[in-house]
Each structure stands twice: as C-alpha cells, then as structure tokens.
Sequence to fold (1218 residues):
Amino acid sequence: MLDYGPDAILMTGLDGSNWHLKDYEARGGYGALKKILNEKITPEAVVAEVKKSGLRGRGGAGFPAGLKWSFMPKQYTGAKYLVCNSDEGEPGTFKDRDILRYNPHMLIEGMLIGAYAMGIGTGYNYIHGEIWAEYELFEQALAEARAAGYLGKNILGTEFAFELHAVHGYGAYICGEETGLLESIEGKKGQPRFKPPFPASFGLYGKPTTINNTETFAAVPWIINNGGDAFLALGKPNNGGTKLFSVSGHVNRPGNYEVRLGTPFAKLLEMAGGMRGGRKIKAVIPGGSSAPVLPGHIIMQTDLDYDSIAKAGSMLGSGAVIVMDETTCMVRALERLSYFYFEESCGQCTPCREGTGWMYRMVHRIEHGKGRQEDLDLLTNVADNIAGRTICALGDAAALPVKSFINHFRDEFQYHIDHKRCMVSVPGGYFSAESAAVERAA
Amino acid sequence: MPKVEIDGRQIEVPNGATVMDAANALGIAIPHFCYHKKLSIAANCRMCLVQVEKAPKPLPACATPVTDGMKVFTESEYARTAQKGVMEFLLINHPLDCPICDQGGECQLQDLAVGYGKGASRYAEEKRVVFHKNVGPLISMEEMTRCIHCTRCVRFGQEIAGVMELGMMGRGEHAEIVSFVGRSVDSELSGNMIDLCPVGALTSKPFRYSARTWELARRKSVSPHDSLGSNLVVQVMANKVMRVLPLENEELNECWLSDRDRFAYEGLNSTERLTQPMLKIDGRWQEVDWQQALAAVAKGLKNVQAQHGPQALGALAAPHSTLEELYLLGKLVRGIGSQNVDFRLRQSDFSADRKQTGAPWLGMKIADIGGLDRVLVVGSFLRKDHPLVANRLRQATKRGQQVNLIHATDDDLLMNLAHKAIVPPQQLPEALAQVVKAVAEAKQQPVPAALAGVKVGADAKNIAASLASGGNTGVFLGNLAEQHPQAVLLRLLAQELAGLLGAKFGFFGAAANSVGGYLAQAVPGAGGLNAAAMLAEPRKAYLLLNAEPELDCHDPRAAIKAMQATEFVISLSAYKGYALEYASVMLPIAPFTETSGSFVNAEGRMQSFNGVVKPLGEARPAWKVLRVLGNLLGIKGFDYDSSEQVRDEIVKPDQVAAKLDNRLNGLALELPAASGGLQRIADVPIYFSDAIVRRAPSLQQTQDGALPRAWMNAALLARLGLKDGQAVTVRQGEGEAAVNAACDDRLPRDGVRLAAAHSSTRNLGPMSGEISVEPR
Fold:
C-alpha cells in the first residue's frame, strides 16, 4: 500500500497498480459524476459546492477554483475548453505525477464534473514532457473511460457529452504557465500571453477556457461526494481540504504526503522521517523553487496553509517542500536555482530574458570566488527590476529566490565574496564547497 | 466611452482603447519598442511600463485597456524606475556599436537610451553573441546581437506580408530571430521590416555602410512604378539618391512601401545611365552636345515629314513617364501633323478607343478598398503587380471581406480567397461571363442575350453567390485583363456585372501614369495608330519616351522588327539599353528623381513632385527637352517656363475626377468561342516591370528577379515529354526563346506561363496566344 499519511482522502487505498477503472469504481469512483447526473444537480449548484469547499488552485497561485469556474461565460454558445495543467515542472514538485500514475480516473472524473459545471464539451490534459510513462498510462485510463461510456457522447445515458484528450508536452517549464500551455497545445512555441484577456474569455484557440491543476481537479469528486462544507472543514477557513506536499531534500523519507491544510510544518517534517543524519534544519523552500526561502526557525513555527505561509513571507505554491540542512551552501543552492530560471526563461519579454542570465552569472561568480562587494546590492536591484515587470510570473519566480536567499542568508553570500570560499564546511554536506569541487572536477 | 487621466490631462477614448492610444491622442510620448500601430500588441519589450493608480505593479501602456476613471502616470518616479530598469536590461547584451551601426542616428534604442539609459553599464558579465544570417539581397542580418527581440519583424510577416518568413527560435537568452532553416526572405514587402526594426539588427543591404543617416537630405517624391503612387522620402547625399523610405500616407501606401518602390533607386545610379546626348554618325555612336543632338532630331523629323508625310512618325511612351512628358510628347507629335502616339504599350485590344467616356481608372478611392465587403479580381497577378493593394485586401479579408478571383494563375496571394476560378487566359471572358450570368440569375435580372449560351459552372456559381450576398462590392480588372487580347470584352462583362451588383468597377492600372496617360492625351486621336498598329505597320521614324519597346511592348518581336526596319529612331531615355542597336539619336532624359512632374494614380489622384537631385551628367528633364524640340520644329505653344505650367494646361488637380469614367458606349457584348491549343500566360515579373527597376541589382538577385521559366502543370509536362528543370525551346510565331521548363501544378491545363519584359523572352511574340514547347 502507498502511504500518503493518515489524513489522506484523495490518495488513499492505492497500491501502485490499482489505477484501473474497475479499481477506481470499486473505491466508489465516478460516484460523484453519477450523483450529479442521477440527481440532476444543476451546473450552478456544482459550482456553488466547489466555491463552498474553499478549494484553491493547487498549481501554485492558489486561486479559488469555484470562483474561477464562475468566470466562464454561461451564455456563450460556441466551443469552450477545459484544460488540466499536468505540466508539473516546478523544481521540487512531483505530486501530480503520483495522481496520474496511481489515480488517473480521479482526475478524469474531476474534469468531467468541471466540464459539466461549465458546459464544456472538450478537454485537454497537458502532461509534463519528462514523464512519458505517466502519459501513456493516462491514455490507457482515457481509453478505459471512453469504453465505459464516461467520456464521449451521451455520458451515462444523458445528454451530457465530454471528450478528453491527453497532450504530451516537450519539456519546457514555461508551458506550465497557463497561457504558455495553451499556446503549446495550439502547436505554437510555448510563450505566455499577455493578460488581459484572460483564458476565461480568450483561451485555447481563442475560446473561453478554464485551466486547473491536476490536483485541483482530483479534489472535485470528493467535494461532490462529501459536500463542500466537509472539504472546507478538513482545512482552515479560506484554505479548504487536504493538500499533497512533495517533500524533498535532506529528510529521511522524501516523498508525497497528503495532509490537511493548516498542519504545522513540524508535523510534515516528522512524517517525512525528520532531518537526515540528525542534522539541524537550515532552510526550507515551502512551495516549489519559485517560492521565497524561509529560514528553519521560521518555518518550524509555521502552519502549512496558503495564508499562514504567506504571513511567514513565502508561498504555499505547489506544495513542494525543499528541506535544506545546515551543511547546505546557500550560495550554491541559489546558483542552481538561478541557473534553472535562466535556462527556462522563454525569452519573450525583456526583464526576464536579460535579467535571469545576469542574475545567474553574478551568483555563479560569487559561488566561484569571483564575487565583488557591490554584487549583493546589484543582485537585489536586478531582481527588483524583474519582479512585477514581466508578461508572466516567471520573472517573479526568478527574482523571489534571489531576494529571499540574500535577505535571509546575506552573511553567507558576504563570506563567499570576502573569503572566496564557502562558510559551510561540513565534510560531505550537500551543496558544500567540497561536493561542488568534486562535481567541477568531474 | 471611458475617461482616463494621463499625467494630469483628461481624455475620453473609445471602448477598448489602450493607455498607449489615449497617450498618443493626448500627444504624450511613452517610450516603446515592440508597439507599432499597424501590428498586433506583443507587450514584450516592457519599455512602455507606466504607473496606473491602484495597480499593484507597473503596466505596459500598449496592452492595458483604458477603464473609466483610470489615472495613469507616465513620468512618475515609479514609472521612470520601471522604464529605466527595462532600458538597462535591453542594453546589457546589446553590443553598443553605434559608431559602426547603420541604424545610428535613426535608432529608437539609441534615442531612448539617451533619456532612459545610464552613463555607464553595471553589467560586468560576458555579453551574448548572436550569429549573423543571410536572408537574401535586401535585408542585412549581419549583426543580430543588436536585436532586442521586439518581434516586430515576425509580426509584420505574420500579419501584414501574410507569410511568416522570420520567427523567434530558441528560449531565453538563446532566443534569436531566424528565417526558416536558412531560407531567404522573399516577400515583396520585406523591406518594411527594416523600417520596423527599432535597432540595427535588420538593415538595408543595398544601403549598407554607404552613408550615415544624418548626412542625408530628405526629399519628398512619388513612386514611378505601380499605379498606387506610393509617397516616398528620397534620401540624397552629394547629388546621389542613397536610399528610399516611405512617406506615410494613410490613403495610399499607409506606412509601407513595396520592395520595388524601396529598392528600385539602385537603378538610378546604374552604369547603364545615358548621361550625354549621343548621335550615330556613320554607324558609330558619338557623344555630342545637346545643340547638335537636338538639331539632328529636328532635321531628321523634318526629313521624314517631308519625304513620307507626318503619318510616318510614331511615338511610343512608357506609362511610367510623367504627365507633363506624356502630354508634351502628344502635343509634339500632333504639332508635326500625326496622331500616332500611345503610352499603352502592353495593351493589345484597342477596340474601345474613342468609345470611352473618360479615362479608365480604379472606380473608387484606394483607401475605400478595405471597406468593401465583396470583391472580384479578374486577371491580376495581384501580389506582385499591386503589392500594397493586395495588402489592403489581405487585411480586409481578416475582417470578413470576401475576395474572389478569376485568373490564369493560382499564385498564393497570402490571403483567404472566398472562391476562385483558374482558367487558361483565353477563357477569362468565358469565366467572367459565367459569373455575370449567375449573378443575373441570382438577382432575377435579365441575362444579356450574348450570354444565353453560357453554361454556368460550379466556380462561377460560388463566386456569384459570394458577390450577390454583399452590400458593398468592387469588381477590378488587373494587368492581365488589361493586356488581354479581349480586354474590351472583359471590360464590358465587368461593367455588366457591376451594373447587376450595384458595384464599383475599375482597373488596378499597371503603371504610375496609367490614368495620367489618358488625361495627357498620349493616345492616338482620330485616324491615329495605336501602340500595336504602329508596330504592325512600321513607321519611318519613332520617337521613344522612356520606352524600351523590346521589353515594354505587348509584342516585343514585332517591336524589335519595327525598330530595326526603321531609319530614324529617337530614344528619349535615362538608359542606353537596346536603343544602342537601333536608334539614331539618344537623348539623355532625367528619371523621376531628377525632374519635376506629376503622376495620376489609379484613383485619379494627381501627385506632383520636384526633382530630388540634379540630373546626372548632361541628362535633362524630358519636358524641357520636348519643349526645345517643339520650338526647334516651329510648333506653336511650346513656351513653358515650368512643368507646373504644362500640368495646368493639361488638367487642374481638382478637375481630374470629372475626367474619369470607366463606361463604354456603343459597344455590344459578344462572346466569341475561345481558341484552343497551348496558350501563353505572360506575367510581367515585379522586378522587370520598368526601365529603372530592371537595372536595380539587388532586386534582380531576389527570387522574383530569377530568370523566366516555362511553367506548366505536371500533366502538361508529361504530355510534352518534359521534365521539371529541362532546357526547352519555346516557340511563338516566328520567335523562339531558350528557357528551362518548370512545374507549377496550380496552373490551368494547356497554359504555359512564361514571363514577358525580360531579355530572354524578348524574341517571342505577343504576351498572349498560342505557343509551343519542345526539348532543346
């Protein structure tokens, strides 16, 4: 049995191979869809239920899902699209992969319900370029659902029709940005669009489109089965339900854990087996690499929900918790992160295209003993010039780590500049100067 | 109508207007690079970031819609910080090589860097290097490191030219502008990308490194090539035309220029220019002075007049000549006592002469073409013959205009055609007749008796349905229709169709003065011979004005024979050309940049211009040359002090409209059976169309400047036992041409497309008619 923790409601009863339609149905799967169609629950009531649940977007931005659904033009008679964002590219995040791998029908059912609620006939699930096996598995799941009459025309003998297609991406991080994703589905270069117009009015192929994260859709059947209130009650007000956290880094049992929103971080750390080697916690990136880093002593006092983490100065993001112990060189960690954003910038707009390379090169220099005294202020200023000035959020995502790393660990950066070497000198430590030297030599 | 306040000034703007629109209306300049009024919004340069009250971050003015009560600050500390931040980013990887950059002095980046850049760079890392690309003879992409990725060139291709020839490849810092795997940029509008490029990434290859922009004087002019009359800024240095740029005129060329209008100036500086009067003495050319040359001309003309009578003289003028030149030529010929003058060199059907009620013209304003909801184009190589008219239609089709085409070739017009009928050229009248009949039936109007036997096909039915469903329709005849042996029949059919539809109807017009030539009366009067007749019945003397008969005439073979058989040919031309072989006197006259004059464009707009440089060598404005000739011949009324005086004698600008009329009187509609056999489809390729452009080397190196080939569809190739690319002999009448065969499967059956106006096909006969192709 796969264990996502005692609070798991979505990822429960899974053993790794029981993803098939019959298994899902045995777990009560497609019950929510049947309930809606049998009881003739109106689309408005479905949206209201999702609104009530306090379900917020699990992809990173945390936008209330029900509210997003209500933006779709109701009177619009032409084609509308429903898109699932399974382009899980955020470093540290690997939760959607588990849903696709172990419980794909839950996602399909969630999308069916979304399509019903918004009067949409066609959907796409855009799957991350690097996970081919999961894509193939999802295609199989789709085939099962089609064969069983859950997808296609006259679903369960009603007038409701919905066709769902899987789209395999090509490995660009930027295609996880919803409008970049739409461009990619359209067969174009994955570059974010300027908003407004938002996808709800001008989305895929210029039609009204709703895009949600995999985990967001996956939570919908439970909400319909158990009611929005019940979902909300699992978490905190405005932070309904459970959430999958992908814990990685210097913990004993890295992996996905499903906990109620509002659970203290310390509890999640405990579920993940605590710090590896009994070392001290130094820092945590709580919401994927784009979220600002928090020092260990702050995160240890913080609950895991959207509002609490925001109050602590970071973001819940996608729920990717990257844990770093005291042996971690923060300069080298930031160098790696900065390189990622430099490499993944789409190049469309100026601040991100030019600024991410500048930041990376500066951090790279500092890490390699060529830092200058003015670098830290310059870095912060460059990050400020990127943040909030770009077409999409990648600019912010690139700037926030730089600002937060320097903000919280300025002394380490200063030490690198002053002494041309790392102040963290625990032999064998991750991201330490030694491991870096070994890597360079290799 | 939302109200917005920008920098403390209020304005009401239409719904959907952006902050940039509102600022422009207020005359507030917001710095920008990627924004362009004619292109879609990209919002990628971020230079136009402004402060908007209550917005959590600076917003791009170009993409932010105005909402009621919005307060915008374009110059606040907050806005300036954002703008300066973007400028710094734009400059960090830019090579800052202004001293050696052609864009220097007219560079948006350079200009804005003065206001928003720092004195010194904070960027101490390595700069990016982007490799150069070769995209053909017109656009230089040598220093792509200068590119700031605004994608104006990309959007121009997608949205205006209609074909995406440049794109941005790669991601992040590796993003670069490329053509599709090493291809050249072949659009006939490509040069506009140079104008659009806000930096020195795309520059003009022909102009490259020849002058600094601030050394150039800017003078207004009018393009002498197609019938649009594009407005030009001609830039000159040391009495030499260095470059041509568009002069914005929303009613004509908008802010664009076709590559022909832009790059043909190279021909002005050609080594083939005739710069000294030349006289053939004892079979050898000698440079003489004007007095000697004009005396010889006067004497020669008098001799011919005395020996053979005035009817032995014929005058042929290119329709690219100015109004004044055309008029004085006609006046001179008439003064001698002849009516043999014509400027319609490529026309072959003159049966409408003296049955026209006015000068044939477009039938409407060019600017209104985009407002039509249904259009029928008959016999036009639209994209190449009228690049910017094609663009107007291309833009209009995106707004719902339905463009239908009846033509002999199926070149990609880069727009969505509603319906088309592609037929061999001799069947054009039949195809148009079908549409007329179908429309008459659809409108429940009587079908003209002559069309009783016409069978309406599916294409015609579709076209008719499209046309009949509109409320504001235009029917236009293109160059092929005008040059067609049954041009008048096509015109009558179009007139009939326009009558049925209540449509506008007219001619696109082939050249700068296609309308003007009529106003200037450069057409034969009663008893006179038209251009074709003058060649078919060779004269004893020819007066050529800007004309190269072997390239400009409908039947080049007949033209060459006539010239060679004649004892006295006077060539008034800016170039030597083939006149060296048959002329007796060559008088160097000034091309449009070296003389004042006027063109009357397709819509009847008279545009007068001044010379922008002094005539080269001993060349003189043709109107002056003709004036002196008139005086020497003792003809009255040749005492002009200025070209304006000549022009005012022809027609005042505000009287032109009254003289335009496409209607024909006293001609009955008759539809003879079309002939069979292999038929020649002769286009005039865009860069062979007139004497100047033929001598512009860069344009000649483009794909459109390629050697003519005998194009036919695969079935015809197979039937003739030919292969694509095979060397063939094309025969037409007594003439033959050695070319290569080529396959274009979109051509109609039994049609062989072989370009006219090129030296390789000048021995062939007319631009239409039967032709044979065999292996060589």
User: Anything to note?
Assistant: Chain B has 23 helices and 33 strands. The first strand of chain B starts at residue 3 and ends at 6.
